[in-house]
Every structure is written in structure tokens, then in C-alpha cells.
Amino acid sequence: MAILILSCESESVFTPKKTLAFKDRVILEIDSMTKRSSKYVGYCEQLKSIYIFNETNYKLYFYDVESAENWKIIPFEKSGPKRVGKIDGIYVLNQDSIFFLNGFGNYVSLLNSRAEHMAKYEIFENNNAGHFIQTRSPSFKYSRSTKTLHIPIISSQKINSKETKSAMNYSLDSHEKELYKAWPSNFRKYGGKGRISYMAHNYEKSICVFSYTIDESIHVYDFKNSITTMHYAGSNKIKKPEYYKGGTGIHEKALHQRTQSWFGNIHYDKYQQIYLRSASIAKRVPKGVNPLSSNLKTVHGDEVYVITILLSENFEKIGEVPHVMLPNSAFSTPNGLYVTDSQYQKENEDIMVFKRFEIKNIPQ
Q: What SS3 class is residue 57?
């Protein structure tokens, strides 16, 4: 059984030591069939390339991160005997190890650069599944050293909330499954937004760092000792969200989500040995105003809608950067941190843009 150790620090002792400094942009030229806002975007470290999967024509595009040139396109079959099937997520290890996730079917398919099916892994029995692949989280990873898939998961209502787990290790050799890391208590009471988790793996230390939308602390799971420690990774700008007490209406859900603050994606920059964690700040929605309006102020009366928190390798808070959010596609290279930029030439649908930041010291 995992032992929970609480380790917290006060926000009052926080002294910013590092920040994110904007350097330049990488601008990819995309075709008319590819959405600039595509959610199937990632970075392949082995190929040093950004990849984009087009859910319309089922083509996978590779762009060199330095030159921004499209150097390869792999077509997959959308229908027919070799069809990939419905796609809810994609992770590219290399050209011949392309993982496709299917959330409804609870399986992962492995294909190569010739669009050939190499394997199909049934993660859960879909006809009686208590757990499901969590496709809204970008935290799917593969460990080459152990040949293990690291998969974020979520449970159905049939699983007692105290017994739910956040993640699973799936061995490609033995097909053994290890479910681990319990969800925070009462996570289901926050509505759909409370049922999302994010993970950042530090393979050198054999740990996985969890960011839950409802918790100011990060949860650090030690694989060797099966121990979880919690570390403060919040902000004075973030207040814990309230339980969702509305109905099933879209307006009610949107109002709750927009008027609460939520933590988001967490990313480990192994080159700088720093963790980055995003958060969105609650909006003030006057009565009668559409909660999806773009003209809302935050509850603090300003326009700082998102922040990114910087943590040292020992989980000390060392920075808080306004106006920067880590999308699911965020990645790092030795040259910096890359995040998609939807505002640069936002009317241009023929490009996909990434901002590049460098982590800089703040003079003390």
C-alpha cells in the first residue's frame, strides 16, 4: 500500500528565481485539410520533429523542428481492411512505432511507417470496463527501457471513488497491467473538469508527477517505493474550485467551469531539470452574460487568464509566469520550451505556430 507523505510550503516564502523568456516562433505551413487548432499534435524526440495527425484525411505530417520543413507524410486508411479506426489520441515514438489510442474501445494500436498494423493492445475489456483510457489527457508515454506504456485512466461510476486509480502501466511483453495512484477525494463532485489528470515522467528518478485540476499540490509517485508525496505547486491567484451543483445543461456547465480556477498540464523539461505547471484563473461572469464571452475579466479584475508555475527538480516553486499556458502539445528540446500560439496571425488558417521560450534566471 502506498504511503502518503504531505510536504507543503507556504506561498509567502516564494521568491521568483526563474522565468520564461520569449525568443522566437516556429511557423509550420499546413495544407487546407489540416486544422490549425488540431488536437492531434506532438513532438517526436527521436526524429526531432513536430507531428500533426489530420483527422479528416488520416495523414500524419512530420515537420523538422529547426527548419519547419515538412519532410514526411504517412497516409493511413480511414476505412477498409487496414483501417485505423476511430482516433482519440496519437503518440509517435519513431517512424515505425506509432501508437493510436481509441478511448471508446479501450485499446491502443501500434502501426509502422507503411501503415501496417503491428499490434493491438486491449487495455481494458470494453464490455465490462470499470476503467477507461483518459483521452483528454496528453500524458500517454512509452518507456523503451521497460517496454511499458504509461496510460492516464479514469473510472466509471461503478468503481468506488476511493478505489479509483489515475494511471496504468501496461507491459508490451507480458501484457500485465499495474493500476496506481489514487485520485484525490471527492474528485467527482467537481463536474467533468475535475475528472482530468496530467502526468509528467522523470525516468531518471523513476517518478511520475501528477497534476490534478482541483488540487494546488502536485502528487509525486515513486515507482521504486510505491510512495506518494505531495508538494505545493499553487498560486495566490488560484482558489480551490467549488463543487458542481448544476444540472446537465451546457450553460450551467460552462458557467461553473468559467467561474472556477483549474490547474492544468504539467511538463518536465529534462534539459533544464524543471517542472512547469499551468493553471487557468476564474472569470467574473455578470448575471445575464454568456459565460463563453471573450470579454470577461478575471475574479481579480485583470486580464491574466492563465499562468505557468515553475518548479525546481526538488519541487520548490521558483517562478510564476503570466499569460503562458501549456497546451497538450507542449514540448522541450535543448533549445527551449515550445507551446502553440493561436494568436499569431490568427486569421491565417494555413499555418500552425509555436512560440519558443527559454528558461532564464531572475537577478536576485
A: coil
